[in-house]
């Protein structure tokens, strides 16, 4: 199987972390591609052109992080990588964690624009959303205890990129979450998938 990624995409990083956490390094070949590029190798496998994308042996391609996580959990015979509809509380929480990651990506993308094109309104909105989300996560930290759950990995990747690119981290009011992130960031899977310093 081929997992198409970019070195700096937080969504790609979630999939790469999972490959390591689940011990699937020999089964999954990490393939670096470009995005937003009409010559990208990825376009032959996925018309969406987004990463991560997992090309299976039967040549079907999964191009959604949750589906990829579910599939990787399935082949690793782990049934608690993604939440099941049978546990609606976990299912809702996982959706929330993925939306935190998506919102941080929107903020990072906005902040990277040329200064004249940055929307202060978008930045303000995303910062407020991120503050609310961190407060919620700090209050519900017990939900982030499964280290190879999609929810935990999505939050670790979201908060790590927010710290690196936006200088946005958990503050004194969210000390439990800050401690959790510090510990999670030292996992071998997180250390091996750190974004490039660009
Ligand atoms: N909903 C998608 C989001 C993936 C996504 O937004 N990936 C970004 C990189 S973090 C991407 O590929 N962007 C390139 C593009 O928009 O063409 C998922 O869950 O996998």
Rg for CA atoms: 17 Å
Shape descriptor:
globular
Number of domains: 2
Name the bound molecules: glutathione
Which structural class do the helices and strands define? alpha+beta
Number of helices in the DSSP assignment? 7
Average per-residue pLDDT, rounded, comes to: 96
The proportion of residues forming helix, as a percent range, comes to: 40-55%
The major sheet is characterized as:
4 strands, mixed
Q: How does CATH name the architecture of the largest domain?
A: Up-down Bundle
Spell the H/E element sequence: EHEEEHHHHHH
In percent terms, what proportion of residues is strand?
Answer: 5-15%
Q: What is the CATH T-level topology of the largest domain?
A: Glutathione S-transferase Yfyf (Class Pi), Chain A, domain 2
Give the terminus-to-terminus CA distance.
29 Å
Main sheet: which strands, in order across?
A: 2-1-3-4
- What is the number of strand segments? 4
Question: Briefly, what CATH class of the largest domain?
Answer: Mainly Alpha
Give the uncertain stretches in residue-range form: none
List the helices and strands and how they pair.
Elements (H helix, E strand, L loop, with lengths): L1 E4 L4 H12 L7 E4 L20 E3 L5 E2 L2 H11 L12 H24 L8 H20 L10 H17 L8 H11 L2 H4 L7
Parallel strand pairs: 1-2
Antiparallel strand pairs: 1-3, 3-4
Helix pairs in contact: 1-2, 1-5, 3-4, 3-5
Glutathione binds next to α1.
């Amino acid at each position: 199987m081929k997992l198409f990624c970019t070195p700096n995409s937080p969504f790609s990083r979630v999939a790469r972390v999972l490959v390591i956490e689940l011990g699937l390094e020999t089964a999954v070949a990490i393939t670096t591609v470009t995005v937003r590029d009409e010559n990208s190798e990825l376009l032959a496998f996925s018309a969406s052109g987004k990463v991560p994308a997992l090309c299976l042996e039967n040549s079907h391609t999964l191009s959604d992080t949750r589906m990829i996580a579910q599939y990787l959990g399935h082949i690793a015979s782990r049934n608690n990588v993604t939440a099941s509809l049978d546990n609606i509380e976990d299912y809702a929480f996982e959706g929330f964690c993925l939306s935190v990651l998506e919102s941080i990506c929107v903020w990072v993308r906005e902040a990277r624009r040329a200064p004249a094109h940055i929307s202060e309104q978008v930045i303000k909105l995303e910062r407020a959303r991120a503050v609310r989300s961190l407060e919620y996560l700090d209050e519900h930290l017990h939900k982030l205890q499964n280290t190879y759950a999609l929810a935990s990995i999505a939050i670790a990747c979201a908060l790590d990129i927010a710290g690196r690119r936006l200088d946005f981290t958990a503050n004194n009011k969210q000390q439990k979450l800050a401690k959790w992130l510090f510990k999670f960031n030292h996992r071998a899977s997180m250390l091996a998938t750190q974004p490039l310093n660009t």
